[in-house]
Amino acid sequence: MNRIVNVARMQLINKWTFLGIPAVILAGAFLVTYLIWVLIPDGGPTVYSGAAQAVMWYFLALGIQSLTLTFPFSQAMSVSRRTFYIGTVGLFAVVALAISVLYYILGLIEVATNGWGQNGQLYALGWVAGSHAVVQILFYFIAMLALFMVGFWFATIYKRWRATGMLIVWIAIALVLLGLVALTTWQGWWPAVGAWFVAQTPLSVSGWVALFCAVLAAGSYLTLRRAEP
Amino acid sequence: MIDESRPIFMQIAELIENDIVDGALAEEAQVPSTNEFAAFYRINPATAAKGVNRLVDEGILYKKRGIGMFVATGARALLLDRRREEFFRQYVQPLAREARKLGIGKEQLAQMLSRSETGTETSERSVAQ
Amino acid sequence: MTAPGESTIIEIRNVTKRYKDTTALDDVSLNIYGGKIYGLLGRNGAGKTTLMSVLTAQGFQTSGEIRVFGEHPYENDRVLSRICFIRESQKYPDDFSAEQAFASAALFFSNWDKAFARRLADDFQLPLKRRIKKLSRGQLSAVGVIIGLASRAEVTFFDEPYLGLDAVARQIFYDRLVEDYSEHQRTIILSSHLIDEVANLLEHVIVIDKGKIMIDDDAEAIRGSAFTVVGTGTRVAAFTAGREILHRESLASLASVSVQGRLSEGERAEAAELGLEVAPVSLQQLIVRRTMDPGPELSMNGAATELEVSP
Asked: Considering the domain C8-217 in this protein, what is its CATH number?
C-alpha cells in the first residue's frame, strides 16, 4: 500500500505534470474564452465554447506519457507493474475527480452569473447541466478517465508490440467499426440506432463510457503485466 | 603494486610482510585496516581481508578486538627466518647444483661470491676508464 | 570483515530467453551468494543486460526458474524493494531533473542515503537542476551510478555504468564503490566489458558469452590460472604438450601458447632452462581467449577445436 502511495508521490515530484499544466490549461482556456466574449460584442443567443475540453485532451497525452516514460523509470525504482498501475491510475482518478467537482462548481457559478456576465457557456453544458450534481460530476469524471485510459492503453500496446502492434490495433478497430456500419446498413437498423442515441441521458452515457473505461482499464493492466521497460 | 598474475590476497600479505621485514612496520605497530588497503589499492575489501587474515593465521599479525590489527612481537624474526629458508631453496640450492655441474669447488664458489660483492665497484671502474 | 555468510540469494535454473531470431540466454543455471562484488563480464550482446533484466523481473525468460531471496521476483514488491537495477539505457520522465530522480529513489529505496547522493553528484560534477533529457551521455550514466550507489539496495546491479564517463569519473565510481561497499556490505553485480578496469574490485567472476555461462568462479582462483609461454616453436610445443591449450599463435619459428593451469617452481625453472618466457594471463586476456571465435590463423594449427573448452 505504502509503495502505491509512493508511486503517486513520484508522479507528483514534478508538480507541473499532474497539477501545474492542467491548472494552467484550465485557467488559460477560461481567460482566452472570456476575452473573446468580451471583445466580440454579441447580440443575442448563448455563446458556447469548447475550450473547457482542452484539459481533457491533455489527459490523453498524460496517459501516453505516464506509460512511455514513467513506467520504465518505475521499473528502475523496483516497483512492480501492479503497484505502478494502481498508483498512477489512482492518482489520475483523484485529479480527474477534483477537476470534475471544479467543473460542476464553475458550472453553478456560470449559471448564477448569467454566463460570466457575457451570456457565455463554458462549463454548464446545456445537455448535462440540468442533471443531478452527482450525475454531472460523474459524467465529467468518466469522460476524463476514458481519455486517460485510451492514451495509457495505446502507449502500453506500443511499448509491447511497437509500430506493428499499433498498426494491427488500428486496423482491427477500423474493421470492427466498418463491420458495424455495414451490419447496421444491411439490417436497416439506422433509425433504431438514431433513436437509441437520442434516448441517451447524461447518466446512461456515463454508464456506457464507464463500461468502455472498465474494458480499457482491464486491457491496459493485462497488457502492462507483460510489458518490458 | 598489485598485478594480475597471482591471487591478490597473496600480494597483500607480501606487501605487509615486506614492510615488516624492512622495518617500515615496527612490531606492535598498527596495520592499516582492510578497508584502507582496499581503498588504497582499489581492490575488493574481502580479498584484502583474506590477505590480512592469512598473516593473522601465521601469527605475524594479531587482532585487538574493536581496535584493529597489530604486528606481533617476533614477527620480523619469524619472517626473516622464512625468507632465509626461501632464499636457500630458491637461490642457493640451484646455485650449488649448477656449480657442481660446472665443476666449481666450494672454495672457488666462495671466491666468486666475495668477488661479486665488489662486482659493482669493478663495473663502475670499467665504465670510468 | 564479517561476511553475511554464504547464503544463496539468487538461484537461476535452466533459464532461456529467446527473441524472434536470437537466443539471448541459453539454459543458464547459476547461484549468486550474498555479500560479494560480482563481475558479470562478457562482450557486448553476450546476454548481460538480458540476464539482469530477467533477474529483476523487468524482463521475462522464455523458460526456466528464478528465485530471488527465495521467491519469484515477478510482481513481488517485497522482493523488488530489496533490489536496484538501473539499465544502461535507463529512461527517465521527460521533465525530471537529476534531483527529482533522486527524490524519487528516496521514496522507494529504504536505505537511500541522501547526503551520499549529494556527495556523489559533487564528485561527478552533475548539474542537479538540469533536466535529465539535456544531460550528456556521461552525466546520464552518472545519474544511474548515483542511484545505484546511494540506494544501498541489498542487491545492486550496475549495467555497464561507465558509458560516456571519462577515465577520471570512472575512477571516482570504482573508488566510491569500494569505499561504500567496505562500510555497507551488500551484493553488487557489476556488468562490464572493460574487464581490466574492474578486475581487482571483484570477488567473484561470471563470464557470459552468446548467452551461455563460460566461467563462474572465485576471482582469486582465476588469477594466475593460466599462463602464456613464448619461445622457439618446437620447445614451446614440447613444454605445453598434454596441457589444456587456450590459444596458440606463431610468428616464423617463434610460438606463443596460452595454457590453462599453474606452474610449479620446478616447471618454471625448466621453462627458464629451455629459454622460454613465461608470462601470466590477465583476467581480460583469459576471457578474450575463452570467448573468442576461433580465427582462421588458429585453425591452421588445430587450436580452433581446443578453444571450445568448457569451464
From this structure: 3.40.50.300
